């Protein structure tokens, strides 16, 4: 099953790259859909992206904005990649 999902994601990305310059706006959604399929099916990809988001704050901010605008199904896959951050300790605790 994972092989099918990865194959579908690669096809989506390649189709997106092929159609990104056409007047019909299908390229960007296809390019975005491919990695989201991969993130939804691979723990290793999720961990890899979480590490990148922890190190690169601009990337993390971009994903947070994307989470706010994405449909519910896609938001769940993106939220799993949020880096775990420690809460600041309260003074006097």
Describe the overall structure:
Helix 1 (2-19) packs antiparallel against helix 2 and helix 4 packs antiparallel against helix 5. Helices cover 72% and strands 0% of the residues. The chain contains five helices and no strands. The N and C termini lie far apart (49 Å). The protein is mainly alpha-helical.
Output the number of helix runs: 5
Q: What assembly state would you assign to the polypeptide chains in this entry?
A: single chain
The main sheet comes to:
none
- Taking all Cα atoms into account, the compactness measure Rg is 16 Å
Q: Helix proportion of residues, in percent?
A: over 70%
- Return the string of H and E elements: HHHHH
Give a short synopsis of this structure.
The chain is mostly helical and 93 residues long. Helix content is 72%, strand content 0%. It is elongated, with a radius of gyration of 16 Å.
Notable characteristics:
mainly alpha, 72% helix, single chain, 5 helices, 0% strand, 93 residues
Topology overview:
Elements: H1 2-19, H2 27-41, H3 43-55, H4 57-69, H5 72-79
């Amino acid at each position: 099953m994972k092989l099918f999902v990865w194959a579908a994601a690669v096809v989506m990305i390649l189709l997106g790259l092929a159609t990104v310059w056409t007047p019909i706006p299908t390229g960007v959604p296809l390019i975005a859909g491919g990695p989201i399929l991969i993130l939804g099916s691979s723990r290793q990809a999720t961990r890899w992206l979480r590490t990148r988001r922890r190190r690169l704050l601009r990337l993390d901010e971009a994903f947070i904005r994307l989470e706010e605008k994405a449909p519910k199904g896609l938001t769940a896959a993106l939220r799993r990649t949020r880096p775990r951050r420690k809460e600041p300790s309260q003074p006097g605790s």
